[in-house]
Design a protein that fits this description.
The protein is of the alpha/beta class and about 140 residues long. It has a single domain (about 5-135), classed as Rossmann fold, CATH 3.40.50.11200. It has four helices and five strands. The chain has helices at about 15-25, 45-60, 75-85, 120-130, and strands at about 5-10, 35-40, 65-70, 90-95, 115.
């Protein structure tokens, strides 16, 4: 599999550790069948430039991977990032993290059928699928 560029969307206030672990495990020296190029923001951005900066980053990616944690209902920025991806024809899928599961609240725009448990074979299958959807098709 090629090295897809992924924007990793996550609840900045609650799931930063999950993002670091996810991206770290997706590096080329891991046992995963792919490398994730993480294009997400690593720091809090000023509100005045946040949307423009993130929209440009998402537009340069092959997909958006949403890390769905237990506090996802309060992460309004994640819903905005999903909407930005839809506007740019960038496919989106989610991964349950931090004890979240099938009964957890999902952000607006992310169907439950596109969210998988954090297991690398599941994630690899979704990445493969994303590389054939939207602007990647």
């Amino acid at each position: 599999m090629s090295d897809p560029r992924a924007f990793v969307s996550f609840d900045f206030d609650h799931d930063e550790t999950s993002r670091m672990l996810f991206v770290g495990q997706g590096k080329s020296d891991s046992p995963t069948p792919f490398t994730i190029g993480d294009w997400s923001s690593k720091e809090t951005l000023p509100q005045t430039s946040w949307e423009e900066t993130i929209e440009i980053k998402i537009g340069k990616c092959n997909m958006v991977i949403v890390l769905v944690g237990k506090s996802m209902g309060s992460a309004t920025g994640v819903a905005k990032e999903i909407a930005m991806a839809a506007a740019k024809d960038v496919p989106v899928f989610g991964v349950y993290v931090d004890g979240a599961g099938a009964d957890s609240t999902l952000p607006v725009g992310l169907p439950r059928s596109r969210v998988v448990p954090w297991a690398w074979p599941n994630i690899a299958a979704m990445i493969e699928q994303m590389m054939g959807e939207g602007k990647n098709a």
